[in-house]
Amino acid sequence: MKSVAGLRAMNSIKTFAASLVVFMFAVMPGGAALGMGSAPGFPQIKIEAPEARMSRVIVGSVSVFMKISNTGKAEDTLVGARVDVPSAIVEIHDTENGKMFRKEKLRIPPADAVELKPGGLHIMIFKMPEDIKEGSEFRLVLLFEKSGEKQVDVKLGGADTQMHMHH
Ligand SMILES: [Cu+2]
Q1: Alpha-carbon dihedral sign for residues 131, 137, 143, 149
Q2: How far is the CA of 120 from the centre of ligand 1 (A)?
Q3: Integer angstrom CA distances of residue 81 from 13, 20, 104
Q4: Which residues in 37-145 belong to E strands, given as ranges?
Q5: Which domain holds residue 68?
Q6: Residue 124 Cα, ligand 1 centroid: separation in angstroms?
Q7: 116 with 52, same domain?
Q8: Hey, which of 25, 121, 130, 141 has its CA 20 to 30 A from 85?
Q9: What gap in Å lies between CA 116 and CA 109, rounded to an integer?
Q10: How many A from CA of 150 to the centre of ligand 1?
Q11: pLDDT digits (tens, 9 = 90+) for 100-146
Q12: What distance in angstroms lies between residue 123's CA and the mean position of ligand 1's atoms?
């Protein structure tokens, strides 16, 4: 009953079905992983206790402190930051022997937390508008290599009482 042409058609359908199965196996694991942000193998970044202080030394500059915790299973890296103020320049800073210096990036290990605090690591913002004062609020956006952008609303506290900028 089956013609040669019919058999050929059947075979090509079987081949097509087989390659479809192979294709689905190849694509699915990656697709499933994309939908699960907290799955093993991913970082889970949380920003706690953000606090901003005006510098007493450089007018219009602000230090921001916070705790960055990573409850995930993989490392992430803070690679940059920005604020919603056009003139401002935002940098990642560390402090050594009382002197601040710029860092390109900051590692956030898994199941750990990194504290940005006076006299140590901090986010430095230069060229904020001169009319900013205690109580001013602004939005800081932190950019992580894997977790993407994290927004932090920061309220400006009093002047930074740390003396490290004088050395
Ligand atoms: Cu600094």
Answers
A1: negative
A2: 9
A3: 54, 44, 11
A4: 45-54, 62-70, 76-83, 89-96, 99-103, 106-108, 112-116, 122-126, 137-144
A5: 45-166
A6: 5
A7: yes
A8: 121
A9: 14
A10: 21
A11: 999 999 999 999 999 999 999 999 999 998 888 899 999 999 999 99
A12: 7
